[in-house]
From TrEMBL:
Domain of life: Bacteria
Lipid bilayer topology: Multi-pass membrane protein
Main location: membrane
Species whose genome carries this gene: Acaryochloris marina (strain MBIC 11017)
Localization, UniProt: Cell membrane
Keyword terms: Cell membrane, Membrane, Transmembrane, Transmembrane helix
Identification of the protein by name: TVP38/TMEM64 family membrane protein
Ranges annotated as spanning the membrane: 12-30, 42-61, 73-99, 131-151, 163-184, 190-209
Single GO cellular component term: plasma membrane
InterPro entries tied to this protein: TMEM64, VTT_dom
Pfam families attached to this UniProt entry: VTT_dom
Length: 219
């Protein structure tokens, strides 16, 4: 699967989730949908947790759509955010330990040969010596690859986990908020606007990290 095809599939999945939600809302109404999801009890967040977890452990699978879905259909913003953050923290910790214990061969099987360059670039950045740079990389959309890459370095889990918790929470908050505010009124729409601004902020951080990488490569 090429990088372009992977990005296209991610985009199509996100669009598909949004279109599907719009259709369901038109047919049944948002309150009825959320009532039905609430009727599922704990199985609704568990289902979204599982989907998000799998899409992080196997990075070739799109994961952003599940954050939007969680924000849209779960009981409230905090339930959705906690569900997604827990899935990411556990999945990224697993990725870190798998890379640490089994090395590059297993990582290549999980992420795919064509995407190993992302993992290799991270493992060569010496992020274990810079907590804030590590946290910054974990705030980007390639946090799953970063977790595998950091696992291939000398970084210890006690160094990795605080950066992961902060980075993942910052990364997920605006995406879940967009899902929560997408079909809401009043304050919900303000939440969505704030989330979009958060996405732009993350994009600026990603651009800064890319410049740091380019400067390090030239140096």
């Amino acid at each position: 699967m090429t990088r372009t095809l992977r990005r296209l599939l991610k985009f199509l999945l996100i669009i598909g989730v949004v279109v599907g939600l719009i259709w369901l809302i038109q047919q049944y109404g948002m309150e009825r949908i959320r009532a039905n999801v609430a009727h599922m009890g704990v199985w609704a967040p568990i289902g979204i947790f599982a989907l998000r977890f799998i899409s992080v452990v196997i990075p070739a699978l799109p994961s952003t759509a599940w954050s939007l879905l969680a924000g849209s259909v779960l009981a409230n913003f905090w339930t959705a955010l906690i569900t997604v953050v827990l899935a990411d923290v556990i999945a990224c910790s697993l990725a870190f330990f798998l890379a640490k214990k089994f090395g590059r061969n297993l990582v290549e099987k999980l992420v795919g040969t064509k995407f190993m360059d992302k993992v290799d670039k991270v493992s060569q950045r010496h992020l274990e010596t810079n907590f804030f740079l590590l946290m910054g990389f974990l705030m980007t959309g390639v946090f799953d690859f970063v977790s595998y890459g950091v696992g291939l370095t000398t970084t210890r889990w006690v160094q990795f986990i605080p950066a992961l918790l902060i980075g993942i929470t910052i990364h997920n908050t605006p995406v879940v908020a967009i899902g929560a505010g997408l079909f809401a009124e009043g304050n919900g729409q303000l939440l969505a606007v704030g989330a979009v601004l958060g996405i732009f902020s993350l994009a600026i951080i990603t651009g800064w990290l890319q410049r740091r990488k380019s400067q390090a490569a030239r140096g």
